[in-house]
Amino acid sequence: MIQSDEIAAFFTRSDGQYLCARWGRPIAPVVFGVDDATLAVFKGAIEAVVTLAGHKMDEIDAELGANLMVFFCTDWDEMTDVPHLDKLVPDLGPLVERLKAADANQYRIFRFDEARAIRAAFVFIRMDENLQSIGADALALSQAVQTILLWSDAAFTDQPPLAQVNGNTVLRPDVAAIIRAAYDPVMPAVATDPSHALRLAARMELPQ
Fold first, then answer.
1. Measured between alpha carbons, how far is residue 55 from residues 48, 69, 160, 184, 206 in Å?
2. Which residues contact 95 (CB under 8 A, 6 or more apart)?
3. What is the mean pLDDT of residues 121-136?
4. In this predicted model, what pLDDT tens digit does every residue of 135-170 receive, in sequence order?
5. Least CB-packed of 13, 152, 189, 202 within 10 Å?
6. Domains in the chain: how many in total?
7. Are 31 and 5 contained in the same domain?
8. Which of 15-19, 33-37, 189-193 is the least confident region?
9. Cα distance between residue 137 and residue 135, in whole Å
10. Do residues 23 and 117 make contact, with C-beta atoms less than 8 angstroms apart?
């Protein structure tokens, strides 16, 4: 069984702050820059993770239309050409320059409601050589996992959320258990106290 201090590490940021947040509304995803086959893979992965969490999906978000937006590109400069994206992502130009300078291949931005639960997420993926070597199913599942909760910025630095089992890409059991526990109805949508990890540990049941 995973220990509470190990759980806490998933939500303790580089500055030492503990912060866990889940979605406060059904997730309405849209994916830009991919073909229909890849789109189906991504929506399937998102649905699988949402189902695991016991959360809900919807076709349309009443406020935003879509509240989980995934953008694919081959060069970060393409982001500045997306119509109206600068209205959804303030300081888009400087962000693109920072991503180029860091040679990043992915970036996620979250927006929160008045209760500080997740209300929207924007995922940017630049298909460099590293990501091109990953199958669409693995890439989709990884992004779905990393947007279902607000994880620490260092949560998956040393070990990705996915694993290989008999040649298949699957979600790590400990990560799956944390997601299920975080979406337990008795748990808060937002937590900033590390004691939250103790409550998660009490609700986790890992497969034997």
1. 10, 18, 23, 10, 19
2. 89, 107
3. 90
4. 889 999 999 999 999 999 999 988 999 998 887 889
5. 202
6. 2
7. no
8. 33-37
9. 5
10. yes
Torsion angle, CA of 187/190/193/197, rounded to 10 degrees? 50
Q: Give the structural domain span for 194.
A: 1-22+150-208
Single-letter amino acid, residue 134: I
Tokens 């998660």 — which residue? Answer: 200
Q: Is residue 52 located within the same domain as residue 144? A: yes
Q: Which helix (H) or strand (E) holds 71?
A: strand 68-73
Query: How much helix, strand and coil, in percent to the nearest 5, is found in the chain?
Result: 40, 25, 40
- Same domain for 58 and 92, yes or no, is yes
Segment among 52-61, 171-180, 198-207 with least mean pLDDT: 198-207
Tell whether 95 and 12 lie within a shared domain: no
What one-character DSSP code corresponds to residue 90? T
CB within 8 A of 38, min separation 6: which ones?
A: 31, 136, 140
Whether 108 and 175 share a structural domain: no
Query: How far apart are alpha carbons 139 and 13 in whole angstroms?
Result: 23
Asked if 59 contacts 43 with a C-beta cutoff of 8 angstroms, the reply is no
Reported as a single tens digit per residue, the pLDDT across 44-61 is 999 999 999 999 999 999
Same domain, 36 and 121: yes
* The pLDDT value given to residue 2: 82
